[in-house]
Amino acid sequence: MNKINLYEKKIIQDKEFPVQIFENNLQEIRPVFPEHWHEHIEMHYVLNGEMVLYCNHKPVHGEPGNLIIINSNELHTAVTKTETFDALVIIFELDKFSEEIVNHNMIFQTLIEGDERIEELLLEIRKEESQKELGYKLAVKGKIYELLTYLMRYYVVESISNKEHLQRKKNLARLNTVLQYIQNNYTEPMSNKELAQVIHLSEFRFCHLFKESIGQSPLSYINEVRLKKAHHLLQQKELTVAEIASMVGFQDFNNFGRLFKKKYGYAPSTVWELVGGKTTNKDQES
């Protein structure tokens, strides 16, 4: 089974320069990165094109001039919406820059649009990083301090307690455990009660945490895992549609066909026929 690990540990080796800066240049509509979370701060300044970043499953639309900030312990993924996309990405360990922000557990606004001062600072950081003249690391650190000061004064949406900060980390770790359990057992029937027991929560608390974190119910997520696996198996053209439905955990063949068509826009037999498989009468009904 594939190992699921939503947590990303970013290790920046240079203690004198605890920041990673690069440009993300993509030439097709595609995912930018898989869903994950981390403790460092990540900023995406859109230079060209558009993307949608899902932060805690809430869509954030990025266009040229927009700054998207991913705070510590936020589950996120992104996909481009245009065939060309360019963004300046800055990743840094916040505790290496400002204990003041860390101690107050400040949460920055996710989307900042059309702020000329932020644009000025980010383009200066981009220029220094690109040219790498003598002292550029000092210059970049100075600009980041200016940027953080500006964000602290104008774009902090909340300050959470240490207890809440630790609880968010704990919930994300629990979530990873459940997703791994689903990945390992999706072919078998699973109940909310069973999943709740995996992380020692009540069924009510588990369902609330799961939907709050993933954006859908546990059953919807499980069916999505099954459907993705079924789509992959259909492309291998080695089994019938009915066999694949049963193999990935669907006990109701008609329900499999309905959910598959809802997700992909076509019947499962369509995939199978396109790759040269043979359908049974039952397959043709789906």
Question: Explain this structure to me?
Answer:
The structure is a single chain. With 286 residues, the protein is α+β, with helices and mostly antiparallel strands. It has 3 domains: 19-159, Jelly Rolls (Sandwich), CATH 2.60.120.10; 162-215; 229-285, Arc Repressor Mutant, subunit A (Orthogonal Bundle), CATH 1.10.10. Helices cover 48% and strands 21% of the residues. The protein is built from 12 helices and 11 strands. The chain has a 5-stranded antiparallel beta sheet with strand order 1-8-3-6-10. Strands 2-7-4-5 form a 4-stranded antiparallel beta sheet, with no helix packed on it. A hairpin with a 2-residue loop joins strand 4 (51-55) and strand 5 (58-62). Helix 3 (116-131) packs antiparallel against helix 4 (136-154) and helix 6 packs across helix 7. The longest helix is centred in the middle third of the chain and has 24 residues, at 162-185. It is globular and about 65 Å long. The two termini are 28 Å apart.
